Automatic annotation (TrEMBL):
Keywords: Membrane, Transferase, Transmembrane, Transmembrane helix. Belongs to the bacterial sugar transferase family. The keyword Transmembrane applies. It is a multi-pass membrane protein. It is found in: Membrane. PANTHER family: COLANIC BIOSYNTHESIS UDP-GLUCOSE LIPID CARRIER TRANSFERASE, UNDECAPRENYL-PHOSPHATE N-ACETYLGALACTOSAMINYL 1-PHOSPHATE TRANSFERASE-RELATED. Its main location: membrane. Residues 274-457 form the Bacterial sugar transferase domain. Gene3D superfamilies: NAD(P)-binding Rossmann-like Domain. This is Undecaprenyl-phosphate glucose phosphotransferase. It comes from Pontibacter saemangeumensis.
Length: 464
């Protein structure tokens, strides 16, 4: 529904302006409670700008956090809002420590956070209720009908109704061969011959045509009628017989093409952006963090067990090409390197357990990122033995190798990390890897990196 893209952009800007206004209100309200005046001191004016800026940054981490339509259920929107406040508080706390803003009143910050959360939460609820009232009322300014009652027509109506787009109203189906026993029969307004008169009488704005495309005369007739009466005529081809999943349609010049899956990293500019970030991020870690932690970790590894500091192992990368993956050694030297680590694994050393728990054992893989064998974010590179085993059991397993493997991934920050005793655990991991491939964005990578750091700080129960 590209015609609503401008609405979503405007909606986002409008709500962001509203949020900043509510944050300013919360600051003044909190200042009244704390100091008895609405006049903010100079340091709080600066802090307000920092508070609002961090909120703007955090908004990019929560998909559609600034949408009030029905695309996401209310529990998902509430979860996004709560996650946004948690992330905002974490980043703001880091800024306070980094910039040494010790003079700020902790009590005022508490009042500000509580009032901000209350105001923004209430504004979302009110706007959502107003939105639902408008979309369900007769003031909806875009009325549409669907020609056909087949699978494509029913799926289209359900999708448009679920998305609940602003200012739209479904007026009915039109079909000459409708199933009399269909549960949607009550919404049938007549045959195709009745369509024109109905459109004129009820000021229909859009016609969606979902019948087979072999009736050229009928399509031409309805197209001409729509053009003459300022009605948008849209053809919705039914591919359900040949494609059993969501597809993406695009045009190469004037030739329509269908892609059976959405792959943002097929676009060269996206790959370049991701690669530039990988190089910059890996260089920063190698130059700033690695020199500090390497001597300490190397000494601890050597003191506890004999063997090299680094562990090298062949792993399958993009398009199953093998590469040498680097890690800090976390186990005693053994001949079972293709055996996945388990809970209380006797091969793991004490320092190794700590490194695994905090993910510090993965630090050398930033050299893999710099060399181009890995990315900062992507599907985790599994063992070669796992590739041979799971590719025979899980149909989508090999799909994850369409992209460059990563140090961290969507599956890992979603709780699917560690041992995979049961097949369903690996299936869920693959599901999240494929979901990452099909929904990649730069902000999604940033969110995964943030959650990875957060998990490192709090520790992961599945990391062993």
């Amino acid at each position: 529904m590209n015609r609503f893209r401008h609405y979503y952009s405007f909606n986002r800007v409008l709500l962001l302006v509203l949020d900043v206004t509510l944050i300013a209100t919360a600051f003044h309200f909190s200042n009244i409670i704390r100091y008895g005046t609405t006049d903010l001191q100079q340091e709080y004016n600066i802090f307000f700008l920092l508070f609002a800026l961090v909120w703007w940054i955090v908004s990019g981490f929560s998909n559609f956090m600034f949408r009030i339509d029905g695309f996401f259920p209310i529990d998902r929107r509430l979860s996004n809002l709560i996650n946004a406040f948690i992330m905002h508080a974490f980043i703001l706390a880091c800024c306070i420590v980094m910039f040494k803003l010790d003079e700020l009143s902790r009590l005022l910050l508490l009042y500000t956070y509580l009032s901000t959360a209350l105001l923004i939460g209430m504004s979302r609820l009110v706007l959502m209720l107003v939105y639902r009232y408008v979309t369900k009322s007769d003031v909806a300014h875009t009325r549409y009908v669907i020609v056909g009652t087949g699978p494509a027509a029913l799926a289209l109506q359900q999708t448009l109704n679920a998305n609940d787009d602003l200012g739209t109203k479904f007026m009915g189906f039109f079909d000459d061969n409708a199933d009399k026993l269909s549960p949607y029969n009550s919404k049938l307004k007549g045959g195709v011959d009745d369509l024109k008169e109905y459109c004129l009488q009820h000021s229909i704005d859009e016609i969606y045509y979902t019948l087979p495309l072999n009736n050229r005369a009928q399509i031409d007739e309805l197209t001409e009628f729509a053009d003459d009466n300022f009605v948008y005529f849209r053809i919705v081809p039914d591919f359900s017989a040949i494609v059993q999943r969501d597809v993406n349609m695009y045009f190469y010049h004037n030739i329509p093409m269908i892609s059976v899956r959405r792959e943002p990293l097929e676009i060269a500019s996206n790959r370049v952006m991701k690669r530039l970030f990988d190089v910059a991020f890996s260089l920063a870690v190698i130059l700033l963090i690695f020199p500090v932690v390497l001597p300490i970790i190397a000494l601890l590894i050597k003191l506890e067990s004999k063997g090299p500091v680094f562990f090298k192992q062949l792993r399958p990368g993009k398009k199953n090409r093998l590469f040498v993956c680097y890690k800090f050694r976390t186990m005693r030297v053994n001949m079972q390197t293709e055996l996945q680590a388990t809970k209380n694994d006797p091969r793991i050393t004490r320092i190794g357990a700590f490194l695994r728990k905090t993910s510090l054992d993965e630090l050398p893989q930033f050299f893999n990122v710099l060399f181009g064998d890995m990315s900062v974010v992507g599907p985790r590179p599994n063992l070669v033995s796992q590739l041979d085993h799971y590719s025979k059991l899980i149909s989508k397993y090999k799909m994850r190798h369409f992209v460059t493997p990563g140090i961290t991934g969507y599956a890992q920050v979603s709780g699917y990390r560690g041992e995979t005793k049961e097949l369903r655990l690996m299936e869920k991991r693959i599901e999240y890897d494929v979901r990452y491939m099909e929904n990649w964005s730069f902000m999604m990578d940033m969110k995964i990196i943030f959650l990875t750091v957060w998990n490192m700080v709090k520790g992961e129960k599945n990391a062993f």
